[in-house]
Predict the 3D structure of the following.
Amino acid sequence: MEKGQFTRQEIFSQPEAWAAALKVLEANRQEILALSPERHFEHVLYTGCGSTYYLAMAAATQCQQLTGMACRAFPASELWLNPSSSYALRKTLLVAISRSGETTETLQACGSFLEDKRGTLLTLSCYDQMPLARMGTLNIILPSGQEQSVAQTRAFSTLYLSSLALTFLWAGRIDLFTLLSDLPEVGHRVIDLATPFASDIGSDASIDRFYWLGSGARYGLAAELSLKMKEMSLTHSEPFHFLEFRHGPKSMVTGSTCVIGLQSTVNRKYESAVLADMQTLGGRVVELGQAGGLDRFGPGLDESIRSVLYLPVGQLIAFYRSQSKGLDPDLPNNLDAVVKLSGGV
Ligand code: F1P
């Protein structure tokens, strides 16, 4: 078995997974619209664990930005164990996200949400036989996101794209919902463009730590790519909101630091200034949009859709670093594909 063969296949097959997911979302369009939060709820909560918690952060930010609804993200363990500091006494739409559909914390959070009659549950997951896929008023299953490897890659981007589709429909942005169908083809081209760069930086043994900077919905994506770097290559890695990095964490920048920016279009000048400061401190700096080839597709793609393309590029950097260190990204150190707590503890 070649080390990382599953992870490699899953990263490179994301565009096909996205195309298949879009068919599922189109088939559920009416059911999704029937849960439009503006008509029925006072706020929207998103939840998941690990990667899918970071996805929840990105999805909540994007939903609030486009619908104007109050949206928040919590780790499922918070909704389960600290409900009073998580929930407000308002009618809630809870969007629960899970690749496996059987993570204990997520099941517990959804179970208590329903028992306490806090509102309506919508689930996004990849396996139709798993418990979560039967708990929601609406359960959207995305089999094309299923994976063999432990660290999420294809599952994450497929579930994230699906969360964007929900937001676009709820916001009445049928134009953006339709534009999603461009993503698979652009995704293939970005992956082809980015692979040499990702292999180069992933194999650079002079780098000993990575910082991933992202603001708005891109902060959740930065947190996910930082987790990929940890899970796949056992490298110190942390995410920050762009301008936050100056408020202390930049003290960690050395010649062996790589600062990777998931830049926006709207705030690019502020974000580039942070990267320029870190370059002055001697750190290696990467503008992921430019280096990953995304900028070639910028004008035609809406910012929210374009941000999905950061995922395969960042995943490839972590993958190639894992390979250069002789590790197996299919089987990350200490990790299981699903965290199931025996006896619920
Ligand atoms: C959640 C999760 C993953 C993590 C690891 C363990 O799984 O924490 O995010 O990368 O695989 O499980 P799920 O609820 O999304 O299946």
About this structure: The beta strands are 43-48, 71-75, 92-98, 119-125, 138-141, 209-214, 236-240, 257-262, 284-287.
